[in-house]
TrEMBL record:
It comes from Vescimonas fastidiosa. Keywords: Membrane, Transmembrane, Transmembrane helix. This is DUF2116 family Zn-ribbon domain-containing protein. It comes from the Bacteria. The keyword Transmembrane applies.
Length: 114
């Protein structure tokens, strides 16, 4: 059975969304995401640069800081793959992305401080 592209509920027939409200919300969120992708990419690159610098300074603390930066970016801007969105729906995929960000932050704290 096909699922709504926004909320993840089952949809009958060939429709992509369960209601017009879900379709409008999906399109609005996609427009916002398109404007924010540059910040996501910049934050991930910043985290990777901090990790790269840690290779030269041989600082495990800096590795943790880099992972924490990436975790914060993923938490604030939880972009997920189209496959995840198709499987879970847009709203649940965003929640899964935020959970992944929290996990990255925890891993960064664990690596950097322990």
């Amino acid at each position: 059975m096909k699922k709504c592209g926004y909320c993840g509920k089952e949809v009958k027939g060939e429709l992509d969304f369960c209601s017009d409200g879900c379709e409008k919300s999906y399109k609005d969120e996609n427009e916002k995401d398109e404007r924010r992708i540059k910040y996501f990419a910049g934050g991930i690159v910043l985290g990777l640069l901090v990790i790269a610098v840690s290779a030269f300074t041989k600082s495990v603390f800096m590795v943790g800081i880099g992972v924490i930066i990436m975790g914060i970016v993923v938490f604030l801007l939880p972009f997920t793959t189209p496959e995840t969105i198709a499987f879970l729906g847009y709203k649940r995929a965003k929640t899964a992305g935020r959970i992944a960000g929290i996990v990255l932050i925890a891993v960064g704290i664990w690596v950097g401080l322990i």
